Amino acid sequence: MGDGAVTGRIIHTLDDVEEGAAHLCAICPRMAQARAEVGALPLRRKPDGFAQLLSAIVSQQVSVASANAIWGRMKSAGLTGPRKIKWASDDDLRAAGLSRQKIRYARALAEARIDFGALRDAPTDEVIATLVEVPGIGVWTAEIYGMFSLGRADVFAPGDLALQEAARLLYELPERPRERDLREMSQAWRPWRSVAARILWAYYHVAKQREGIR
Description:
Endonuclease III, domain 1; 13 helices; 0% strand; Endonuclease Iii, domain 2; 2 domains; mainly alpha; 214 residues
């Protein structure tokens, strides 16, 4: 399931990532240059479902360490499912580390009653439209969910600042491309935009390390 015309190609293994990378390198010399510099690309598949999106909400606007600590407390308290979130008091959720705003977002996600199984076989546009209806889930979070939790091969996240900066560096652009411009630019990387994102994220880290040495 999930490899049909509706969902497009699904990335299951590193072989799929490498197939996409080979395609991108064949059509774009800059991608080939980046690919040569970054080495092995990550699979980065994650689980899908309620807990994954709740974790994304928890992680917003806090450090990785803080997000991990809060999520650890929520797991210990059993607060990772929709029914538990509905039943929990605000004090319970606050004790785990959620702000007032994130408590509202967590409850909105629990009340949304999303059919996560159905999303696995839904068109990507429908997946993103469904998710962004929930307060606290923006387009970037929805795109990342499509990319890594659903394994869609042709999803991109042009609002991501690291992708914008990587594109500026790799393509020697005069300034960091805006979201709209990078979305347009990413059309050239279809049907493997998720792999293009992996290459650009990896290139961003390599380029920043190189700049730091100067």
